[in-house]
Design goal:
The structure is a single chain. This protein is mostly helical. The chain has a single domain, classed as Four Helix Bundle (Hemerythrin (Met), subunit A). Helices cover about 60% and strands about 5% of the residues. It contains five helices and three strands; from the N terminus they run H-H-E-H-H-E-E-H. It has a three-stranded mixed sheet with strand order 1-2-3. Helix 1 runs antiparallel to helix 4. The radius of gyration is 16 Å and the shape is globular. The termini are far apart.
């Protein structure tokens, strides 16, 4: 766990779409669907994954924790969803726009709730009981992992 306040977590989460857009500026368009290995996402797949997880994972989890007593929060099988939805065939602008909109909506909601609500809990499949503030930490850790993956892709594929 990190030592950020809830406000700092929310601010950091709000910056992820901009950080991705900045990395995208350095990335050659013809390489967006290249996978570094069979087990790794391409640049486009990373963005599609972040979009779908934001909507179908984090957005639903946040809403459930705020509106239900001790809700059961489903896992999100990112690898399965990526395969089923053929991420590398999707439109980059739509994927990034979808992620940006969903993250903006989640951040806006989080900025409206009072401090005590961040201690509300849910039962996250495969993890156990989590508070809303812990869920925000997990979101940021997940974002940071994908931002590192994208930066690594930029370094490997950057045009000379």
């Amino acid at each position: 766990m990190n030592d950020l306040t809830v406000g700092e977590l929310i601010n950091s989460l709000s910056q992820t779409p901009l950080e991705i857009a900045n990395l995208l500026r350095e990335f050659p368009a013809e390489s967006l669907t290249l996978k570094p290995s069979a087990d790794e996402f391409s640049f486009l797949e990373n963005i599609c994954h972040l979009r779908d997880l934001e909507v179908e994972g984090y957005g639903l989890r946040i809403t459930s924790i705020l509106n239900e007593e001790a809700p059961r929060l489903a896992d999100f099988d990112g690898a399965r969803v990526a395969s089923e939805r053929h991420y590398n065939r999707q439109n980059l602008d739509e994927a990034l726009g979808g992620f940006t909109r969903a993250r903006r909506e989640n951040v806006a909601l989080l900025r409206t709730i009072d401090e005590g609500q961040f201690k509300r809990t849910g039962e996250l499949q495969g993890v156990g009981q989590v508070t809303l503030d812990r869920l925000l930490e997990m979101m940021l850790e997940h974002d940071e992992g994908h931002l590192e993956d994208l930066a690594r892709l930029c370094r490997r594929i950057k045009p000379h």
